């Protein structure tokens, strides 16, 4: 059949989807030679009964129909009314991602053979549909915390519990729906943006997912991350300059986004980016969160605008101790309750980190030292306090009988701040 040589097919495979679909519309049978090696099973399953999808042109027609459906829905969305939303909810088959809630209790990581804690008594929860920022001074244990969430602590002993959706399952059981974006880029410099994402999609998505659906996933990620203008550009290497640093970071995140994770963990995805590039990336992540994705990332020195784009904050002090874990909106209120007020022109996240770094000394009027902040957090939440840490708060007494497990609790009077 004309126009179906393998060379042409390869080109089309890599090319722009819109162009391919336009060609398909003009000449629907021209893709019979397209090499689709996976996904036939589902295609057949989804096809009308008794009409198996035999040819690739039929498969492309299917993909085309899916896009047309999306376009129609977008058109419908333009004039949304309340009753319109209700009717859409009734008419449309809404496919939701599985959601993951991660609750951790008393998470403690100790170096093997040494009594050195990298993380101590960390308790909290990461919820689906929320974007959490992990912050703290350098060496506080932010990366260690992310690793612990994925069940990895090489060379260390990890104690405490991690519950996934309330169950004590090993986190490894969920690895297919957990994405991890490491600190260092893992993009292939000699491939284009689209090729990088395609490569990841082919490796990470289920082998039996129909190719048209994979196409849609990659297209959605390109669109969401604003990579459309550079989709055909080489990512670049040290020798050969490619896309910008911000775009490269977005591709790096996209490599994990194509697997459509339910929990997405990112280590410093905005480091080295200017404020607007960071905001662009965070906006894309917030859109993922709207779909129910649970997002947790380490972030360094965010601008106040960026900081306010997060839902929750996990603030760690050196030694992997929690100083605050909760809504970003309430962090200033919590610290002002301790007598720590952010000066007018200071950026709150910078101010808190400077306190934890010891650059800013706490005012004597607070009656607190930096080292006491983690204990104050434990007391504020009624968490058990390790005995050696309890001693950091002067004039307190541990409740009787609690010493055997190494934990103590303060009397109610001393709780009130
Ligand atoms: N496997 C290990 N063996 C020994 N020390 C370790 C190990 N992993 C982490 N550490 C130490 O634990 C502390 C926390 O490290 P981590 O990388 O989690 O900090 P961080 O807050 O992410 O720092 P940064 O912001 O500088 O990246 C550091 O002092 C680090 O040297």
Task: Describe the secondary-structure layout.
Layout: H1 6-14, H2 17-26, H3 40-46, H4 56-78, H5 82-91, E1 102-111, E2 117-126, E3 131-135, H6 142-149, E4 156-164, E5 178-181, H7 193-204, H8 211-224, H9 245-257, E6 263-267, H10 275-290, E7 294-298, H11 304-307, E8 312-317, E9 321-327, H12 331-337, H13 348-357, H14 373-381, E10 385-386, H15 387-390, E11 407-408, H16 412-415
Parallel strand pairs: 3-7, 3-8, 5-6, 6-7
Antiparallel strand pairs: 1-2, 1-4, 8-9, 10-11
The structure holds adenosine-5'-triphosphate.
Adenosine-5'-triphosphate binds next to helix 6.
Short description:
The chain is an alpha/beta fold and 417 residues long. The chain contains 16 helices and eleven strands. The chain has three domains: 6-91, no CATH class; 102-314, Rossmann fold (3-Layer(aba) Sandwich), CATH 3.40.50.300; 330-415, no CATH class.
Give an account of the 3D structure:
There is one protein chain. The chain has 417 residues and is an alpha/beta fold. The chain has 3 domains: 6-91, no CATH class; 102-314, Rossmann fold, CATH 3.40.50; 330-415, no CATH class. The chain has helices spanning 6-14, 17-26, 40-46, 56-78, 82-91, 142-149, 193-204, 211-224, 245-257, 275-290, 304-307, 331-337, 348-357, 373-381, 387-390, 412-415; strands spanning 102-111, 117-126, 131-135, 156-164, 178-181, 263-267, 294-298, 312-317, 321-327, 385-386, 407-408. The strands form 3 sheets. A 6-stranded mixed β-sheet has the order 5-6-7-3-8-9, sandwiched between helices. It has a 3-stranded antiparallel β-sheet with strand order 2-1-4. It has a two-stranded antiparallel ribbon with strand order 10-11. Mean pLDDT is 79; it is low at 1-18, 28-54, 82-94, 396-405 and 408-417. This is ABC transporter-like protein.
């Amino acid at each position: 059949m004309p126009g179906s040589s393998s060379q042409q097919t390869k080109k089309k495979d890599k090319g722009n989807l819109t162009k391919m679909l336009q060609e398909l519309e003009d000449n629907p049978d021209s893709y019979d030679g397209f090499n689709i090696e996976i996904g036939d099973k589902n295609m057949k399953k989804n096809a009308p009964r008794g009409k198996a999808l035999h040819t690739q042109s039929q498969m492309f027609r299917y993909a085309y129909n899916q896009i047309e459906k999306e376009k129609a829905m977008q058109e419908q969305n333009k004039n949304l009314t309340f009753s319109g939303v209700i009717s859409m909810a009734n008419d449309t088959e809404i496919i939701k991602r599985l959601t993951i809630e991660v609750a951790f209790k008393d998470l403690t990581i100790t170096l093997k053979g040494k009594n050195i804690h990298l993380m101590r008594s960390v308790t909290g929860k990461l919820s689906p549909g929320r974007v959490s920022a992990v912050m703290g001074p350098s060496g506080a244990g932010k990366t260690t915390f992310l690793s612990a969430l994925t069940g990895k602590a090489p060379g260390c002993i990890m104690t405490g519990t991690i519950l996934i959706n309330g169950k004590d399952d090993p986190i490894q059981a969920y690895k297919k729906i957990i994405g991890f974006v490491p600190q260092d880029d893992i993009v292939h410099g000699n491939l284009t943006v689209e090729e990088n994402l395609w490569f990841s999609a082919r490796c990470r998505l289920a082998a039996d997912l129909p190719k048209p659906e994979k196409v849609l996933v990659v297209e959605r990620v390109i669109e969401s991350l604003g990579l459309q203008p550079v989709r055909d550009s080489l990512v670049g290497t040290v020798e050969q300059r490619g896309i910008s640093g911000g775009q490269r970071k977005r591709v790096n995140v996209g490599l994990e986004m194509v697997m459509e994770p339910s929990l997405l963990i990112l280590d410093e995805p905005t480091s080295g980016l200017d404020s607007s590039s960071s905001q662009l990336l965070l906006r894309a992540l917030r859109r993922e969160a709207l779909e129910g994705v649970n997002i947790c990332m380490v972030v360094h020195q965010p601008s106040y605008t960026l900081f306010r784009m997060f839902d929750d904050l996990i603030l760690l002090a050196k030694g992997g101790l929690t100083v605050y874990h909760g809504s970003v909106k309430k962090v200033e209120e919590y610290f002002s309750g301790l007598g720590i007020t952010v000066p007018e022109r200071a950026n709150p996240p910078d101010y808190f980190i400077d306190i934890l770094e010891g650059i800013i000394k706490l005012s004597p009027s607070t009656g607190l030292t930096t080292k006491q902040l983690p204990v104050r957090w434990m007391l504020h939440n009624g968490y058990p306090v390790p005995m050696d840490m309890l001693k950091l708060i002067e004039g307190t007494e541990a409740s009787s009988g609690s010493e055997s497990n190494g934990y103590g609790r303060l009397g109610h009077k001393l709780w009130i701040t």
